[in-house]
Amino acid sequence: MLETRDLKIVYPPRGGRGPARAVDGVNLTVAPGEIVALIGESGCGKSTLARALVGLVKPTSGEVLYRGEPLDHRRLKAYRRQVQLVLQDPGGALNPRQNVFDAVAEGPRLHGETDGLDERVHSALSRAGLRPPEEFFRRFPHQLSGGQQQRVVIAGALALDPSVIVADEPVASLDASVRGEILKLILDLRDELGLSALVVSHDLGLAWNIADRVAVMYLGRIVEIGTVEDVLLRPRHPYTKALLSVLPESGERVVLTGEPPDPTRVPDGCRFHPRCPRRFDGCDTRDLPVLSADDSVACLEVIQ
Amino acid sequence: MLEVEDLRVSYGDAPAVRGVGFTLERGQTLGVAGESGCGKSTMALSLLRLLPATATVTGKVLFQGEDLLTARWSRLRAVRWSAASVVFQGAMSALNPVRTIADQLCEPILLHDKVGAKQARKRVGELLDSVGVPAARMDGYPHEFSGGQRQRIMIAMALACRPDLIIADEPTTALDVMVQAQIMDLLTGLVRESGIAVIMISHDLSVLAHLCDRLAVMYGGRIVELGPARQLIDDPRHPYTRALAGAFPTIGDPASRRAPAGLPGDPPRPSELGAGCAFAPRCVHAADACRTEVVELWPSGPERSAACVRVLEGERGA
Q1: CB contact under 8 A, B243 and A259
Q2: β-sheet bridge partners, residue A201
Q3: Domain of B43: which CATH number?
Q4: pLDDT over 90 for what percent of chain B?
Q5: What is the pLDDT of residue A294?
Q6: A2-303: which CATH topology?
Q7: A-B contacts at Cβ under 8 angstroms
Q8: Cα dist. B162→B108, B112, B191, B200, B243 in Å?
Q9: Domain limit, last residue, from B251, B268, B285
Q10: Residue B244 and residue A177: Cβ atoms within 8 Å?
Q11: Cβ partners under 8 Å of residue B103, min gap 6
Q12: Which of A199, B109, B245, B291 lies most in the core, judged by the most C-beta atoms within 10 Å?
């Protein structure tokens, strides 16, 4: 359905720093009706990757493919009908002076689909769980709770009947009790409408809650990918293992020292080696290949 | 050491905290959990009278035998920093961007410890070392540090005058999982070594369970469940605690696989709070009595209490 092939995004040098290799070779596929979770710490490139998938960032090299066709940046409007972005922080994503109806109707209006607009908005809000929809039409964002705001953002994405949703941290700014409701909504949309989704998050629990497959990203590359059961219950990459170990319920904690590294200074060899508790000779010199669709883990120790 | 009785805070007509009481002994850690708008931050900041003048605070906050709510300003200023200090959420905005770290850390030391500039700088060096920030960087500005380091600096600042109590308001929110783990380990270590009492506020029960002896779960401006942290999470008595505990899944638990647990409805607005249980509109067990009867914290086990009529019924039945 949605696919990237050796996708690279490099931001130009700025303020005396070298170019930032935000996304540095990623192969990723989202199959029809599949939910993929993309997990990583801030600065790992996951949001840049999400933006590239909806055509907000132009790849430096490599491609984004939708139904096997490369994404053409001159025909973005048609593409975005199919692939919709849901941003984090609904409070910031909604225009405070626009009521719910106009916020949801914006997409269809931009695409000149004003026939039956009322019904369209009505059904989008209803599918996003805001019922009865008429009651929300004239409300403004400040009159809604955080969870309701996020539902309006999702309804806006649904109004164009997309086939893929790319959601960047859809629950990060929401309260614990609302979090589950929004995740349930994403799961229901897949079950009822066959929607595919790529959900970007730092939260492994989210992957366990809703995803079919999970990709763990570190410094511009995917370091481990597979089914949720394989990756989360039988992790093989030391980074995935460390992330899982610091969850409250796990036993032995592997707390990595240092901060996530800087995309302007990608280390040689395995890019995780400076923080890796299991590094050995060779990790700092031997480059690892970009994970293809068949491999599942980028770690010298595991490969050997 | 700290005794809070019937603490109430309101902004105009809107009550934010509606009668909170608890005690804290030296060296104890209390976690306060709840969703945004439940009054947890307001409650914590009101202890040191850090709220804006528009807030009306009543009740009693006895800290080392003295009521902070009626204390003189000069007395309160002496207590802040040297006896009790605060780690604010969002280290980004709590640090002054145009002053060096050393400058900002020296300020409370110079004011309260009455030492010279040279000694204060020496203390700042020790403090930064103790929180894992290189002391050599003390003349840097906040923007030169990462988010995790800034949070460490905030913790160093709270420790500056060797307080007996630290109030930490969401100290790890907005940080990455790994950095969060680092900060939690740092706090746990500091508490164990120094015997400082901590009130830690968070929306994430699992984070609190890691650090705190006891937990208070707040909803609609009141404590709805109070007791030993592990027990509250493993065996919650209040339906709201149960919902919060279930919101963050345990990886590997088949019950939560492809089944996120949520809680329908929204938290109450302060203006909508009336008689009865504030949680009743979202509670699956709510009965008529819940909407009208006065709900208080009733004993629900050894050293535990919960504000739910079902707890009371259980007691009666037994």
Answers
A1: no
A2: A39
A3: 3.40.50.300
A4: 39
A5: 66
A6: Rossmann fold (3.40.50)
A7: 111
A8: 11, 10, 12, 18, 38
A9: B268
A10: yes
A11: none
A12: A199
Among the listed residues A13, A30, A23, the one whose alpha carbon sits nearest the alpha carbon of residue A61: A23
Name the pTM for this structure.
Answer: 0.86
Return the biggest CA–CA distance within chain B: 67
By Cβ distance, the residue of B185, B204, B262 closest to A178 is: B262
Closest-CA distance, A260 to chain B, in angstroms, reads 9
| Whether residue B171 is found in the same domain as residue B259 | yes
Q: Are residues B73 and B196 in the same domain?
A: yes
The gap from C-alpha A11 to its chain's centroid, in whole angstroms, comes to 19
Q: Is the ipTM here above 0.90?
A: no
Q: Is the pLDDT of residue B59 over 70?
A: yes
Within 8 A of B201 by CB-CB distance, chain A residues are: none
> Could you read off the pLDDT of B6-36 as tens digits, one per residue?
999 998 888 899 999 999 998 899 999 988 8
Q: Residue B277 domain-assigned?
A: no
Residue A231 is classified by DSSP as I
Same domain, B186 and B251: yes
Q: What is the pLDDT of residue A145?
A: 84
**Is B268 within 8 Å of chain A by CB?**
no
Q: Do A208 and B264 touch (CB under 8 A)?
A: no
Same domain, B168 and B124: no
* Residue B107 domain-assigned (yes or no): yes
Q: Does B260 touch chain A (CB under 8 A)?
A: yes
Mean pLDDT of all residues belonging to chain B = 88
Measured N-to-C along each axis, helices B117-131 and B147-159 cross at an angle, to the nearest 10 degrees, of 130
Q: What is the pLDDT at residue B92?
A: 67
What is the C-alpha separation between B173 and A46, in angstroms, rounded? 19
Residue that the structure tokens 């709201």 belong to: B240
Q: Kindly state whether residues B59 and B176 are assigned to the same domain.
A: yes
Q: Does B263 contact A181 at a Cβ distance shorter than 8 Å?
A: yes
My answer on whether omega of the bond before A132 falls inside 30° of 0, hence cis, is yes
Grade residue B213 by pLDDT with cuts at 50, 70 and 90.
Answer: very high
Residues of chain A with pLDDT below 70 are 259-260, 293-294
Residue B38: the pLDDT is: 87
B290 domain residue, yes or no: no
